[in-house]
Amino acid sequence: MKFTAQDIATIIDGTVDGDKNTIIKNVSKIDDSAPETLAFLANTNYTHHIYTTQASVVLVKNDFTPDKPLQCTLIRVKDPYTAIATLLNAYAEMQPQKVGIENPSYMAKSATIGDDIYLGAFAYIGENVTIGNNVKIYPNTYIGDNTVIGDNCIIYAGVKVYPQSHIGQNCIIHAGAVLGSDGFGFAPTKDGSYKKIAQIGNVKLEDNVEIGANTTIDCATMGSTVIKQGVKLDNLVQIAHNVVIGENTVIASQSGVAGSTKVGSNCIFAGQVGVAGHLKIGNHTTLAAQAGIMSDVDENQTLFGTPAMDVKQAFRIEAVKRKLPDLRRDLNSLSKKIKSLDLDL
Amino acid sequence: MKFTAQDIATIIDGTVDGDKNTIIKNVSKIDDSAPETLAFLANTNYTHHIYTTQASVVLVKNDFTPDKPLQCTLIRVKDPYTAIATLLNAYAEMQPQKVGIENPSYMAKSATIGDDIYLGAFAYIGENVTIGNNVKIYPNTYIGDNTVIGDNCIIYAGVKVYPQSHIGQNCIIHAGAVLGSDGFGFAPTKDGSYKKIAQIGNVKLEDNVEIGANTTIDCATMGSTVIKQGVKLDNLVQIAHNVVIGENTVIASQSGVAGSTKVGSNCIFAGQVGVAGHLKIGNHTTLAAQAGIMSDVDENQTLFGTPAMDVKQAFRIEAVKRKLPDLRRDLNSLSKKIKSLDLDL
Amino acid sequence: MKFTAQDIATIIDGTVDGDKNTIIKNVSKIDDSAPETLAFLANTNYTHHIYTTQASVVLVKNDFTPDKPLQCTLIRVKDPYTAIATLLNAYAEMQPQKVGIENPSYMAKSATIGDDIYLGAFAYIGENVTIGNNVKIYPNTYIGDNTVIGDNCIIYAGVKVYPQSHIGQNCIIHAGAVLGSDGFGFAPTKDGSYKKIAQIGNVKLEDNVEIGANTTIDCATMGSTVIKQGVKLDNLVQIAHNVVIGENTVIASQSGVAGSTKVGSNCIFAGQVGVAGHLKIGNHTTLAAQAGIMSDVDENQTLFGTPAMDVKQAFRIEAVKRKLPDLRRDLNSLSKKIKSLDLDL
């Protein structure tokens, strides 16, 4: 990686204030920088660091006016956060891309693959699998029979996809994720043991879905467990059988959604949230970290706690709860006072 | 898949009410159906859909009496839920089964395998491993040295079984599960660092156990971590070293049981439950989702919350807790009243 | 395994009280023992078992004085717990060690490896990977391009290490763990969908780190997610992008630390803890199981609950909370009394 300040400015639609030929070889933080790096100043709490930073180039807002002399070259942009995101993506796209088929890998003769794919060593492609163009399948991955994978997907190392799964276009599945494992369905018997109920459905991911590392999505008992387009699931998330996750919903790490629950679109679940089974969660719902949802949720709610309630109400209650020993003491003291009054009556 | 209504009725011990030769090629939901499918009506809230469903055949209870004319053929059964479970299992058993040894796979010469096994490509069988008859080991699976696997087990893709593990008969282990990883055992040292304590025990699964995707079960420090017969663990469950899970206990996703805890038989843990170490949990215990168990639990309890308590008590407390701001206000107003009374005394 | 009592005593710096040639072939628990085994007596609640144990040899404290005749040979040591840890480690070291390169495995020509390594079948070593001496890489493992692994590391089966990772010396990574998956970073767009922000940083493990099975550690957006020396992470832990975990901090199973949070050194997190993003957790912090941390934490705190608070305060509050229905009733009864007083005024 080696760019001039002007190269960077061109990518992010900025203007150079200083030497356009300043060389950048890496990125750094403004308060933990090195020469020949690019830093950015987006949070004004960090402004004082710009006068001492060793970074050669700093991204700043268009209206930044230094109070003192600067050692660094500036690149002025409308919004440094957006600029850095653009830059990261541009950098990522410049990296060499894996392509070709490594050996040994395993592909059933009945499988069909598109153009420009990468198939890592020890990847396994089952019978009748269909893989689109420009798909990357990293090493040690298992794609079960009859699975369909759309164009431009990236399946990272060690992903396990059970048979009959459908994966849309532009999906990213991170290492160790499991798609299509059996739903947790058992019928109790008279002797206290459980009889397995076969799970013959599948998992369906629509387009532009990203699935985190070691996340698990069970197949449906019948039909499909559906992850709609634009959904982003973080690491170690559990999606149970027959669940539907609505468009553009994002779910943070270690959250779980139990069987047959329908989650609306554009929801945000923070980490370690739990949602019980057979519920409906409305669109634009926000669930705070560790929330536990035990009943249906209307649209546009922001909930906290277990059992979850409106976040503002929850914090009003929490404020009183934290003073419960005082409240108990106040009540006892009132009670004594009343008793003494009683004597007077 | 192509059956007549009579074929289905025979499998599930039902009687056809209508054309016995009606063709079924798939299953559907009664309210989201298509021609040539089989739907079922078990929940009476859905009864009205039977008059408009496009499903060709609908499973109903023996005593179902339509109010209006029906387009569909009926199959009458004692219990539609049981019938559908029977049907799902029959369907699953009809699917072609994997058998044979795919290449490349790795089997130590000292390993012994039974008849009719499936060994997927990139599966690894270590030294002195013993595998029973009719076992299916999917691709990219690792079976460590000296492990024993009983008859009729299914080990899905990417499962990792550490050396010395014992797996009984008829067990199912889902993709990505790990059996036998080191228990989390460290001795603090004077400088604040930790010294690892070797974990030389193993994991033992009895018969008819099912383990979910990406679930982890640590080996014992000495002896065995034991999962007794009929236990069902969902996805992403953590079982720590030296734990014993009693017969027919079922544990839902993302729950964890800490070291040396003994869980009784026929317990039900909902999702995201946490149980501390060195505890005894009695038989027939039910733990609500996200419960946190910090002390021993007697038999036949149903617990909720952290620290967990009896579920009825918990909900009585929760009801008052939700009115805490009102309670505080009432107390303040009483307090004022008393003060004014004081003046009069 | 076959030792004499004297062999054992030599390893753990103890003295034999009885027949020095007593044969031991295995270990057992003092209350669940068998002949030719070694048990230990560390907890005085178990003392009575020593008179009936079938173990041939029992480890006891130096000052142990039996009340009755014993069948077993004793080995007297300063501290039985430490002795057993020493013994376990000695036993583990005596086991045959894997060494050599199994086939088929995959190593890029540009990769360099040290002496005495074990590379299991179906392990994948990418371009420009550097692996130190005496490293063990178990089957079905993926080591991405440009990764560096220090001496004496053990990488168990099915571990996935993304490109550019740095792993120090003497690290142990358990089966199924994922290092370097993309941080969960997305920018919302006007239509409600999310645009991925490329994550170009890496994961850095310092020396003597142990990572549990199926644990996930995301790479940094830029720079490194850092796990400092001596850190021990249990199974199914989530560490998000740009997090720093301080030296010798131990984190139990199913805990999660959200993005950019800095955790101090020598902290102890119990199981299922959640820490929000962009926080600072001071050194020597202890977090109780299922604690939810929503703001910065000073040094030397012990916290409980969600939102977390000082554990002693939390239990004082919990005690009153458990009596909330009584408190409500007391208040109502007082209120009635006041009303009746009012009438008299």
UniProtKB/TrEMBL annotation, chains A, B, C:
Keywords: Acyltransferase, Transferase. The gene is lpxD. Its EC number is 2.3.1.191. It comes from Halosquirtibacter laminarini. It is an enzyme of class 2 (transferase). It comes from the Bacteria. This is UDP-3-O-(3-hydroxymyristoyl)glucosamine N-acyltransferase.
